[in-house]
Amino acid sequence: MNKALRLDPRTKFILLLGVNLLFLVSHSLLVEIILVSFSLGVILIDRKYKSALKYLIIFLVLLYIDRGLSVYLSGFYFTIINFIAYALRRFLPCLIVGKWILETTEVSDFVATMWKLKLPTSVIIPLSVVFRYFPTIKEEWNSIRSAMKIRGFRLSFEHVMVPLLFSAVMVSEELSAAALCRGLDNPGKHSSLIEIKMHGIDYLILGIFLIIVCLTCTLKGVGVIS
């Protein structure tokens, strides 16, 4: 993660929550374009140029399938394809922001933020375990696939999922034990070497998003968008 452009984790989760809420409030294509543009702008600020280009191409392809091909094609199978393309396009801003948060937020930052928000221990421990869980499972998935290829086994569902399920159980137990060993269940006051503080870039991004929210509400109120 680029430390020069380090964003407060609270900013990231406010954006994720806000994008999801706007996604539920409006079904307008204009709002979709605004949200996708804003999401791409956020990851561009974090200098993820390749990811931004990839998401832009995906959005344009999905938009063309929904709005362009529907003029020339019809039928049951195209209806299914069109529905899938529409659903993926609608969820794309949420996926962009969510994946960006997972890639740029360290677990230590996440835990320090939860302590800063004074959340109860019963919430902090499960969330910290879950936050570490998915990257670990991804590593296990890659290790299992590599082991199967080395041994000459054909990659099939049961050859991958069965060891992955056993590994998932072990990983969850190990992560829970590691969280307790680090003293997360200690009822006393916790300290952290990580400073959780809002900076100018955080206020700028939140301000832009607030303008988008106000614009969406205004357009929806006057009936310009649905």
Automatic annotation (TrEMBL):
Its main location: membrane. InterPro entries: ABC/ECF_trnsptr_transmembrane, ECF_transporter_component. It is a multi-pass membrane protein. GO terms for cellular component: plasma membrane. It comes from the Bacteria. It is found in: Membrane. Coiled coil: none annotated. Pfam families: CbiQ. The chain crosses the membrane at residues 13-45, 52-69, 203-225. Keywords: Cell membrane, Membrane, Transmembrane, Transmembrane helix. This is Energy-coupling factor transport system permease protein. It comes from Lachnospira pectinoschiza.
